[in-house]
Design goal:
By secondary structure, the protein is α/β, with parallel strands linked by helices. About 35% of the residues lie in helices and about 20% in strands. A nine-stranded mixed β-sheet has the order 14-13-12-11-7-10-9-8-15. The protein has a six-stranded parallel β-sheet with strand order 3-2-1-4-5-6, sandwiched between helices. Helix 2 packs parallel to helix 3, helix 5 runs parallel beside helix 6 and helix 7 packs parallel to helix 11. The longest helix has 20 residues. The two termini are about 15 Å apart.
């Protein structure tokens, strides 16, 4: 059997399995029902930890989980988030992570710290016998990635990477159409992501602006996109060649300050961000600056910014698919354009993610399927809040229905997390060296042509 026949048959089998699978509601529910609550601990009490993995989890899953420990290096922010989440009286607060693990002995550890520190907490959590929920990216370089994979293998515990984009309905529809073989065998993909001058600029205000903390947007942001590609294509990246530059933010500005609050250019700067008007961010960050000096409203033109603001890559997947990818962080609008080219047709979408745009338009995302020598078919998928509707579905799978059959293969493992960040690491390394970088040269995991 040649490669095309093998891939085609695998796609048919996958589609058949999806049709035969049962719904979440009819599956066996969480083993936590009728048992003790799952003991949760969380390290990192910033915005993402406090809201998505804190207050939302407490409100929606408090009947089956309980927070037993929270940890952060900033004691003021720690106490604020504990009150914001509404944790019970038995939840203890720590600035010493090792002490928290030893004393509260959680079943599951949620890691929502600065990206470059994920590996430390994941590995210590695994060694303490915890299953791990980690925000993406799983980590920021190949050495830390290898250490996490090694620790997981040794511990026998599980690392869950929170790729919520997989769970959004319109991205799930793309997965369905591709795996049903509607455009035949996929041969190439055009994928271009646009961050606007609000969301995009915010990465350059925060700690993400430093490569040593975020791994650059190749890792922190684009790992979301690379995970989608691997999931959609049912394959893993083999090699990457990339270009990138810092052409807009950082040293390119003609005026700057330490932060927006301290800036003398407030009236003339288009990027002035008045954090005092955002009660949540102001109370979380500004009222606790004295503990660690972190400025949430940092200047987007700081000269220490060392990440790229424009990026492009050519990615070859192990199944032969070629991808042209780009990210622009200073676009006038937010969203992405994607097109899958296949042997029988083309599937494409122009997804707009600006809230202002969503409010003006009809409230759905549209996919268009073109068939060679045939017609055109359109699919309209209702829009939803929370990363396209993915947040709640992701957390339901983790907490409410962990044993439900994963019919669309949306649950992401440490291997998925590794392949997503390694694509970005390879791109970053390619820019540094000017060479094509092979994923197999980075860690001991060999990319698979087909992920079964």
């Amino acid at each position: 059997m040649d490669r095309r026949d093998f891939l085609r048959n695998a796609g048919v089998a996958l589609a058949a399995a999806a049709v035969a699978s049962r719904s979440l509601d009819s599956m066996a529910q969480s083993p936590l029902f009728g048992a003790k609550k799952l003991k949760l601990a969380m390290v990192g009490t910033g915005h993402r930890g406090g809201r998505m993995w804190g207050s939302a989890v407490q409100a929606d899953y408090g009947d089956i989980v309980e927070f037993v420990g929270l940890c952060d290096i900033n004691p003021g922010r720690l106490e604020h988030v504990a009150k914001y989440i509404g944790v019970g009286k038995d939840c203890k607060l720590y600035t010493d992570f090792d002490k928290m693990l030893k004393e509260v002995k959680p079943d599951m550890l949620i890691v929502t710290t600065v990206d470059s520190t994920h590996d430390e907490f994941i590995i210590k959590g695994l060694n303490a016998g915890c299953n791990i929920i980690t925000e993406k990216p799983m980590t920021t370089d190949e050495k830390k990635c290898q250490a996490i994979l090694d620790a997981e293998r040794k511990s026998g515990k599980k690392v869950i990477v929170t790729f919520n984009y997989r769970y959004s309905p319109h991205r799930q529809k793309i997965y369905e159409l591709l795996n049903e073989g509607r455009i035949g065998e996929v041969t190439s993909v055009d994928f271009h992501w646009y961050l606007n001058t609000s969301h995009g600029a915010d990465y350059f205000r925060r700690w993400h602006r430093l490569r040593e903390k975020s791994g650059s947007l190749w890792v922190h942001k684009a790992s979301h996109h690379f995970d989608l590609l691997g999931w959609w294509l049912n394959s893993e990246p083999e090699s990457v060649y990339a270009l990138g530059a810092l052409d807009f933010y950082g040293k390119n500005g003609n005026m700057r300050s330490t932060s927006c609050r301290a800036c003398p250019h407030k009236k003339e700067c288009n990027f002035y961000f008045d954090i005092t008007k955002n009660e949540y961010l102001y109370n979380l960050y500004c009222r606790n600056e004295q503990y660690d000096g972190y400025l949430r409203d940092g200047c987007v033109f700081k000269e220490d910014i060392n990440i790229f603001d424009k990026m492009a890559a050519t990615i070859k997947y192990a199944n032969g698919v070629q991808v042209a990818y780009s990210l622009t962080s200073y676009s006038p609008y937010e969203g992405y354009r994607i097109a899958f080219n296949g042997t029988k047709g083309r599937l494409e979408a122009w997804i707009k993610e600006d809230k202002a745009v969503l409010d003006r338009e009809q409230g759905y995302d549209e996919l268009t399927l073109y068939t060679n020598f045939g017609g055109t078919e359109k699919f309209r998928i209702p829009q939803a809040e929370g990363h396209g509707g993915g947040d709640v579905r992701l957390k339901d799978k983790i907490f409410r229905y962990p044993n439900a059959e994963d019919r669309y293969k949306q649950a992401a493992s440490s291997r998925d997390g590794a392949m997503a960040i390694l694509t970005g690491v390879a791109a970053r390394t390619s820019i540094d060296t000017g060479k094509i970088v092979r994923i197999a040269d980075l860690i001991d995991v060999q990319p698979k042509a087909i992920r079964i």
